[in-house]
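Running this now, will post back.
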Amino acid sequence: MKNMIKLLLLASIILIISACVPEKITQENVLEIVAKMNENYKNISTLIYMEEATFKTKILSYEEFSEKSITRNEKGIEVTRDEKEMKESYDTYKTNLEKDVAEGISKISNNILITIIERTVHIKKPGKYIIDTPISKQIVVSTPDYNYIKDNGEVRQFPCPKEKIIIDYDFLKMLDSLTKKYDLTYIGIEEVSERKAYKFDLTYAQTAELSGKENVGDFAGSVWIDEETFMPLKVTSDPKGDTISVTEYSNYKINVDIPDSLFSAPPEVKKCF
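Update: finished.
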């Protein structure tokens, strides 16, 4: 009976949203679609999903690394690093690359470092989430009372804030930022993992404090939104940088039971409040 009620609740949310969606998506009603996406997330109390992020990063030569490692002081003046310090930094950079490859976290192809990270995320409003990343053997647990990470079996508690803060995991924060940071262009319907999705291309908007004047109008990436559930299915980054990222979301479970015991802490983690 409980499962039937949950299914009916989910169906009701989808029907309410679908009823408000224009029959044909055009550039003129893009903002209306984004509003429905945000409204959808507000109606979700618990959420479980899988996330697979693929990062493709150009392996830098020493000269390229040196150029990108230029730092500036508080007055914005470039600070020159001595040759010894630069070589030590580059050696550390290369060592970390080799370590990731040796541990199976990454692989190299045509001077491109390819890293695939899979995570399972549990969200329970208000203010609780768990991020489980098996490849790095890390589990992050966050609640209003404490935050800690279990890293390869070792538990480390994050410093307590001065006051109790309830922050929901920002998985769909990008939905709220879509119209604040980017200009959206509706491209059409495409398939992602055998599901129909609205595709939007993103360019940096005119808001200088968010995107920077030098980025205005530049292509920033694309996002695919499920035509039925209005949940993100895929996000890609700006292909002009050194790192190209593709993140796909799947196995959504919406408004399912997530027991509070899942967020319990080991004895060494103390409550902040």
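DSSP finds six helices and 14 strands in the chain. More later if anyone needs it.
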